[in-house]
Design goal:
The protein is an alpha/beta fold. The chain is built from 7 helices and 28 strands. Helices cover 18% and strands 27% of the residues. Strand 2 and strand 3 form a beta hairpin.
Length: 364
Amino acid sequence: MMETPLPELEAILLVGGQGTRLRPLTLGTPKPLLPTAGVPFLAHQLARARASGVRRIVFATSYRAEMFCEAFGDGAAFGLSLEYMTEETPLGTGGAIRNAAEALSSGPDAPVLVLNGDILSGHDIREQVGMHVARGAAVTLHLTEVEDPSRFGCVPTDDDGRVTAFLEKTPNPVTNRINAGCYVFTRSVIDSIPADEVVSVERETFPSLIEGGALVLGYADASYWLDVGTPAAFVQGSRDLVLGRLVSPALPGPTGDFLALPGAMISPEAKVGGGSVIGARATVDSGAQVSGSVLGDDCVIQSGAVVVDSVVGIGARVDSGAVLREAVVGDRAVVGPGNELLAGSRIWPGIVLPECAIRFSSDA
């Protein structure tokens, strides 16, 4: 596949969602800014976009919009130029793309990359753009293959890679390829989306383009792909980045069994691994076990506590003998001794659980 000859490729990054499925982590922080493998989630996307030839990105923001500018500024630290466009009221995916396009500088025939702010992907962005340019497509979608496509809408293509339909979730999908949330639009197609209206690209824009005979292509591959919309997926994404299952130029240290941020104190008698992140100034005492988890800055895991595939928020404390498995503990919360928080447990910020307040087994 030819490489795109467009060194000044522009992109739109959709970051307007509230991340309700990730509460309480997203009560004060937008999902794309959650610390993931030691840096804000979006840092991984920005670094990959820069490595793929993108030089300018327009953020399409809504929820807590000011926090994105505070986090990334003008983008110079990433070798990017960043702009911020805010929706006063949520406009859907199509409306958000159309609103952000007001800040683009590219001409009507130029390709524009559109990224979703909650996806980790290892696919070749440059090759996707090259395919789009070479075939003169209206839109080229990244398609990924999943084991259970019934949980998603699926996207069938013909032998030439042309998308033939957008199908809603169904018990018997016709393909295991789904919309992976990374698009290349020809700029003029974005401009044809109605301004200041709620529009869904998945339900309205793409189907109408197909119906009208426009060339909508699918760039299909089977590389790493993850939607980090749930706590379990968020933990998995951070873990995979630390372990090196997905390469990221933004990782703030070498890949390995765990990543310790500056000031973290891990006892030599603690067991830490499985792709865990130990936050800045966090403490893991002797005899504690931490595996596959994300520990926030300044949190404390006391001696004998077990934390597996979980998130422990900033300044939170897990006391001796407490067990967390696939749990989320909010900022500054305290999990007292002897508590067992198993799959799906969520403790809101500032909550203090007394000793043995929550048990799943009977041996107190």
